[in-house]
Amino acid sequence: MDTRKLFAARLQAVLARPYLATALFALHPVESRHVPTMAVDPYWRCYVSPAFVDRTPVEELAGVWVHEVSHLLRDHHGRGDRYALRHGLSGPAERLRMNIAADCEINDDVFGEGLVAPEGAVRPASLGLRDGELMEDYLRQFRLGPHTAHLAWLECGSGADGLPRPWDLGPRGADGLSAQERDAVRFRVARGITGSPGNTPAGWRRWAEEAFHPPQPWRQLLGAAVRAAASAPGSGDDYVYGRPARRSAAVPGAVLPSLRRRPTRVVVVIDTSGSVSDAELGSALLEVTAISRAVGGRRDLVGVLPCDAAADRVRPLCGGAEGVELLGGGGTDLRAGFARALESRPRPDVLVMLTDGQTLWPSRRPPCRTVVGLFGRHHGSPSYDESNSEYVPDGPPAWARVVTIG
Amino acid sequence: MSAYAPPSENPTTETPDTPAPSGAPAPSVRASRLDVPGALLALLRDTTTAPRPDPQLEALTLAVSADLPVLLWGEPGIGKTAALTQLATTLDLPLTTVIASVHEPSDFSGLPVIGDDPAGNGIPMAPPDWAVRLVRAGRGLLFLDELSTAPPAVQAALLRLVLERRVGALRLPPGVRIVAAANPRSSAADGWELSPPLANRFVHLRWVHDADVVVRGLGGVWPRSVLPTLDAGLLPEAVAFARRAVCGLLGARPALVHRLPSGEALRGGAWPSPRSWDMALCLTAFATAAGASRDVLSMLVRGTVGDGPGLEFLAYLDRMDLPDPEDLLADPGAAELPERGDLRQATLDAVVAAVRSRPARDRWDAAWALLARAAETGAPDLLVVPATTLATLRRDNWEVPAAIEGLAGVVSVSQRADRAKVRALSVTRGNR
């Protein structure tokens, strides 16, 4: 094998993408006549076909190096396995689909700026898909068929899709990296990028930020926050003398109070002001249903209070989320909603505010636990009242637990 | 119960060749109708074990040996109880399992019992029987299972038990080790969540099952891991190493000493504070004395101070493992360079940086000799940047050393890459 050519290509890749140097040097090349081009395994070995090296120009080889190391940095094999497990997929065809989707995720932004795309590199556009999405998103959007037949030779190895190949040396073979060493290499690359983000493309910056802190789905976070608030001590339980305590038998003659629990009551205040879109309201309604389930499935214990500048009244969520009429559309003042929710009888144990945050907040902490579901605003969009550009809303107060939605 | 084939139920671990009692025929009694089912059960339980390294069990063993409160996060039914059974066997401790969800808070804070003179002597709070037995035995492994399905008041009482080791008026003796288990927040039906101050007191270990292990086990072969034992001869060295590592990192990165978790996603997990760094130091010493792998240490440290600081700590350990540049410069002929490309490059960079910080003719020559040696034994491309930097350090009266001839291959690779770079730039600019 022409190793000098292979290493010259790696050097060119390092010169073009200095922030990937650690990862590129950590890859261990292994000569293999079984792979069509170059392929990686999860243990950071790179299997290289000598014939491929001979017939490919150095600058294209450099592109392949970066492409293959991207599979490993982005943990495509682990993500592929998890996707397959979650969706019950099996078989080589599905793995080929994963390889194609992973390639789309890499190829849409990795080339250019001194790095040549190798011949035949798959791009999302060639499948009729949009750029800039993740492997999991692409996997939902295309199937194998005649239009992907030309991709059937695609082979980036088990490092790209998780399916072990016959030529893989396996976890116990020579020169493999252990789980901790792989994490360490990915961490060093990520820290290099976050440390000097100056000329790194946005795609790699996003990867570096999320490499070890993947964004958690907001539904789980919101559900956990509401559950924690609803089941925390002090909400819904109290000592009463109405029934004898379990301990009473041990203390004859004494009347002991017993701890009784009543179901937690939740009031959801929905911001229906003009700054909240219909789509956001729709997802808010879905969340209301989910929250009612989280508190034990009794819809009569969940109240809904639509609120813009003035609050309506708390309505029970009897007919399900579909039955709630969302009125409003004007400016926002959630303080009215807070006050009205606290007036309702029985008093709520937990307040959930679903809002975009363009509101005034109460100055004092309310006498119950508060969870704020905050609709995320994309940077650059108008974030405050157009008619009054001086007005910048405060963030949610510190006593509320805030979950960003979307 | 969340146990798959606990090893203690396994005939091969305790009493190798004894069949299940139901299979033993009693001579004078006539055959029971349960004999045949009993024989079938005995056959089903007749499994063997094979040795297999298990990093998560090793991590658990070390954390329990270090007497730190451990919290196992894992889905129900994946073998946490089985692991605890094996751990108890290894540490030779009797295992007491308390299922938290079937208890009341008073079971952990004690029941009032009236004596002779309640007004004069007060009312003692009687502890539950398992606690009394534990105190009487003086040692044991207490496993608090299913913490997350217990009502919040019970959870609060249990935390006092885990952290203060008190049950009612009783104090558990130092020989008792405590492990708790909880379901992850995402799968828990009702919220179990630690406040940041509580989370900071635990070693969080994620417990996951391995599909291969389960399949092999159901096929009749369960894994048996050789658990770490501390080497008495290594103890002072282990403490010195752990102190050097933790102090070295925190000296260079004081921001890592204390950082409250920010954001909802990180709540209830591990985060760095002086207390958790102290635990990390202790665990590093234990892992070093036991000769545990970096994977095990990684689990322990990341479960104590959190992912980010834990990874920084491990990266710092990696740097500590690299050869000292001054040693390499002192004797380039005998230098042992790391095999892995990225580590070798980091070593050579450090050597060049050392020459730059204290330039001298003999050091410059030694660095060239090192580079030539590296060119003989490994990939040439990673030498280009160190060699270029080293060349710029030359003073006027220094002659080019003979060793530089060994770098001819490096130069050709570098030139080839430069030509490819020019072509690549013309292609990618042409596309825009």
Automatic annotation (TrEMBL), chain A:
Pfam families: DUF2201, DUF2201_N. Residues 266-374 form the VWA-like domain. Residues 3-259 form the Putative metallopeptidase domain. InterPro entries: Put_metallopeptidase_dom, VWA-like_dom, vWFA_dom_sf. It comes from the Bacteria. This is VWA-like domain-containing protein. It comes from Streptomyces glycanivorans.
UniProtKB/TrEMBL annotation, chain B:
Residues 1-31 are annotated as: Disordered. Signal peptide: none annotated. It comes from the Bacteria. Residues 66-212 form the AAA+ ATPase domain. Transmembrane segments: none annotated. CDD domains: AAA (cd00009). Gene3D superfamilies: P-loop containing nucleotide triphosphate hydrolases (3.40.50.300). Pfam families: AAA_5. This is MoxR family ATPase. It comes from Streptomyces glycanivorans.
